[in-house]
Structure formats: structure tokens, C-alpha cells
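quick one, two chains, predict together pls
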Amino acid sequence: MDFIKNRFYFYVLSFLMVMFSCLSFYIFNPSFGIDLRGGQILEVKTKADVYEIVKKMPVKVLIYPQEEGFLLKASQGLDLVWQEILKSDYSSKKIRFESISGNLSSELRRRSLWMIFIVLLSISSYVALAFYRLKKEFSLLILAFIVIVTLFHDVLVTTGFYILISKFLNYDLDIKFITALLIIVGFSVHDTIVVFDRLRENILKSGKKDKEVFNLSISQTIRRSIFTSLTSVICILPLSFLIFDLRAFLVSIQIGIIIGTYSSIFLASPLLFDLKDK
Amino acid sequence: MRNKILILFSVFFIVSVLIVFSDKIPFLPSFMRKSFSLGMDLAGGVILTYQIDFNKVKNLEKRDVLEQTKDRIERRINFLGVAEHFVSFSESGRILIEIPNIRDPEEAKKIIGETPFLEFKVPLDEKTFVSSGLTGEYLERATVGQDPITFEPVVFLSFNKEGSLIFKDLTEKYLGKPIAIFLDNQIISAPVVKEVIKDGKAVINSEGRFSFQEARLLANRLTQGSLPAPIYLIGESVVDPLLGSKFLDLVIKGSLIGIFLVFAFMIVVYRFDGLLASVALIFFIFYNLVIYKILGVTISLASLSGLVLAVGMAVDANILIFERIKEEKKNKLKDKQVIEEGFKRAFPSIRDSNMTTIISSLIIYLLATSFVKGFALTLFFGVLISFLTAVFFSRYLLEFFYLRNGLYKK
């Protein structure tokens, strides 16, 4: 397969995906998790008419029917809802209750931002270190530029797809999702390092920096890249099917791994090909 | 030499298996039969987050208030009699309490967060009582006892110096009249004062209102007294133990299926090499579990997904090596050289790929809370150990089988 010749199709595809992701924030209006904005979650097993009870409440309560009960989300007042449920069906069972005040959630928000900042800083430093061996073949500035572009691409596109499916499956943007993104960033960057390392080896061997060398390097590493992502995706697949609580988190990791692999193959190396002489 | 290393690894493996299943082996001494500690989501339990209200506390006194609160809260939790708990405090006055496997989270909340308000009230007229100014604040100690006549549980109170004086004045003033004991604004009893009490001793008679257990609880809570500054519950998370055990089954099932899928993939694609890699992965999983047990890493939904993801990523090192070996074989080297070259060439990639994940998971572990922390920790250990097993162990395993059986003779 001629990756370099077809690169513009992939540029267009990536561009469209990034555009879609930026728009998805406006179109789908994603909901943030209670850990980031404060709020309550109540999961109950009950025969009571939860819809009727919620109607009487002064706050907006979202209801998600479960196998044997309901999952309720609201900014506050779910303790009252629980009292009412218990009144109308005494055998009701509280399975899970989570409550996070605005005070706590603002601290979690601050911590998450720090986490993002420090992880990105350390990963970039490591990448700079790893790419230092390529300094004879390519300009370090160009390499840095490409890593930043692919990084933004991965984060944005993963978020876009996640928001899209979260519209249908009621997932939230929460700290777990942020963590997933950070893990993905590390994953995608190392795929790129592997391809570029191979490129360097082949350039040293052949003394050329032409299309063939790029294509050869990509095709030599593509099997490994795909297999590695595949094993990482399939090993968490059963967990994401079986356990509802983990589903959103693991699905976001799976999306990110696939996007990251795509960008390291179809975006990073072709970009380097176009910018190599700049 | 190679045989020795293989024997060493086998011994290592057997020891790890023994450690992992140590709680299932009947003849071991009890201190060795430690079991894994299960997290809230699998054992059920409660996580409570409190914030100390520092509004009325001077800056200089913050430390003392924090220390005192720490001490009082610890004592209150110990009183719950739970098998294990985890409490952490931050300088900003945040208190995080995790209690796994608790039957009644509401009781925990009550005991940790609330101080019973004890008050002595004096009669205004026939029916109403008003505050006398004597409250639980003046208590020195409360102990539980038994009424010598009715055998009902009672709580003995002894006031401190100041309290004793107030009590003496009250009993003088209301001699022959009832003084009521209120707890949390509910009347408990209203005994008639028969004599002036000078020693600051009083008795709360249950009159059938509370059991011994409850009397003990009350005495304890009264003794421990109030916290130096108010605390507010700002975050709460309760998981039913039944739900937890259901999740435990599911997460074990899910993890095993995931790991077997990876094995199947490796064996289909790489045949014998894939089988060896799978064996190495089984070793790898046991090493991880040993670390969890020894360091007391909590097993939760999050930490197990971290481990499973680490397994998926750990395969990467093997794939890198196998793909390299395949290429080196084309260069017509001998078996041993093929493996050596394959390893040598794949090493920088293995190091880099593991390093990025090690860095991000370590930072996430240090900065994040609860769920994410557990995930990042096991992912960190997983990737670190996978790096070590891939570099040291898989290589010897490959060389051992290749050289012995000459599987790749051309």
C-alpha cells in the first residue's frame, strides 16, 4: 500500500474528523460527570413509581431505567427522592448513592487540570529525549510540531467520538474520561516513536529520504502497531461488555487507542514526509 | 547457565503462585494467609468526604484543630468496630474516609459526623423545660453501668470542675423539683433532685429507652465530645455489598475472558512463539498479583481494568520482538544470533513504548483520586513488570526452546 501517495485522503479524513469533534461540543451539548460539576447519583431497586415521585420534586432529576430499578441523576435533592421512594415501597433498596458538592468538584476540576498539564509536559519531555537521536535526519522543531499536531488530533477526535456515543448511551465527561485521554496520549506517542525510529534506521541504511523509504518504514511497523492496539482493545473488551460502571471508561480508551494508531500510521509519517525538508 | 536461569524463574513462579493463593492453603500459619484487600466497589461500603469548617479558626490554630479533629475522627471510626478503614486528611481540611464492607452506612455517618448534644434543662412550669446552661461541653467522662435495682443500663456522667459547680448550683436551686436530661433535643429522663450534688456526678437512667449496646454507644460518644470545629459532609458514596459481590464475579470473568482472547490472538498469529509469550504473560499476571498482595494494593474494578489493560500492552513487547526476529531471520543468521539481534533491535522501541505509559500512569496516580488512582497504580506496576519480564524472561524462554529443539532450522 502506498501510504505516501494517498496521504491527502488521510489528511482530509483527519481534518473532517477534527472539525466534527469541535462541532460535536455544540451539537450534542455533552454532560459533565458529577465529579467535575457536583451533583448526586442514586441507584435504587424499587417497585415504586419513581416517575411520579420525581415529578413532584422541585429540581430536575434524570431517570435511567435499569434491570430491576432506576438510576437517578440530579444536582441535588436525591436524598429527598430516596425518602419518598422508601415511603411508597418499603422494600426498596439503595444500591448506590453518590453525592459530590460544588466545593469538592471544583477541587477535582483544579486537580484534573494540573494532571493534564503535568502529564503532557512530561510526555513531551520524554518524546523530545527520544527524538534527539533523530536530530541528524530531521529538524527537531518539525518533529515537535508533528507530535503536537497528532496529539491534538488524537485528543480532539477521541473526544468527538466519545461525545457522539455518549449522546446515545448517556455517558458523562468525567475524570475517568480525562484519564483515558492521558493514557491514550502516551500510547499514541509511542506508536509514533516506533515508526520514526524505523524511519531513521532505514534512512541510515539507504542514505535516502524518499517516498520508498517512508513507505517501507510504515509497512514494516504497521503490523506491530495494529497488533498492539488490537490486543489492548480486545483484552478490555469483555470487561466493557460485562460491567456497566466500567463501560464508558473502557470504551473511551478503546476509541483512543484506535485513533492513536491511525494517526501514527496515516498522519505522523506522511506529515514528516511533507515537512522533512523545511 | 540457561537452565539455571529457567529453574530460577520456575521457582520464582511457584513462590508467586503460593503467595497469591496463600489464603486458600490450610496448613500455613495465619500471618501468612493474608488475603487480597477488596475495594469499596467490590466489597460494598462507604466513602465519606468531609470538610472542616475553618471559618472561625485563626490561622495559627489551624494545625491544632486539624490534629485534634484527626484524633477524634480516628477514635470515632475505631468505635465502629469495622475490620478495616482508610482515612486521609489534607492540609486544606479535607477528610476522606473509606470503610469497606460495612453493614449500615447510615450508622457510620452518624457516629463519625455527629456529636450527641447533651443538655440539662430546668422546669419553667409544670410542662416546659428551659436550658440551664449545663451541657455536654462540661463533661469529663461518661461510662456505662447498671441500675442496682432495675438492672437497666444507665450512663454515669462526671462533670469537670466548672460543670460540677454549675451542677451544684442547679441542684441547690431546684431541690425537690425535676431536672430534665435532653439528648439531641429529646427528653431522656427527668429525675427529681433529692439532694444537693457537690461531686459533679449524675446518672442518665434509660427507663427502658435504650439497650446496653446503645448505652455504651452513647457513653462513648459523649466522652469523645464535640469536634474542635464543625465538619460538613461534602461527598458521599455508598455501595451495597450485594452489588459488590456481583461485580467481583463479573470482573473476574471479564478479566479472564479478555486475557484468554489475547492468548488466542497471539497463538493464532505467532504459533509456538505466541504460546511462549502466553506462558510469559501468565507469569507476568502472577507477579502483579504478588505485588498487590504484598503492598496491599486494593483490588477494585478500576485496579483490575488497569491490570487487564497492562496485559494487552505487555503483549506489545513480545510482538515487537517477534516481528524483529522474523525480519532478522531473512538475514540468514543463526538461531541464537537471530534472537539476540531481534532483542537488541527491538529494545529501544520497547523501552520508549513502556516509558510513556509508565510516566503518564505514575503522574495520574500521584495527582488523581479514588477510581482513577487505583487504575493508574496497577497500570504502572503492570507496564513496569511487563518491561522487566519481556527483557529478562521472554528472551531466555525463547532461547531455551529454540536452541534445544532447533525449531527454526532452515
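The domain at 7-34+103-275 of chain A is CATH 1.20.1640.10 (Multidrug efflux transporter AcrB transmembrane fold).
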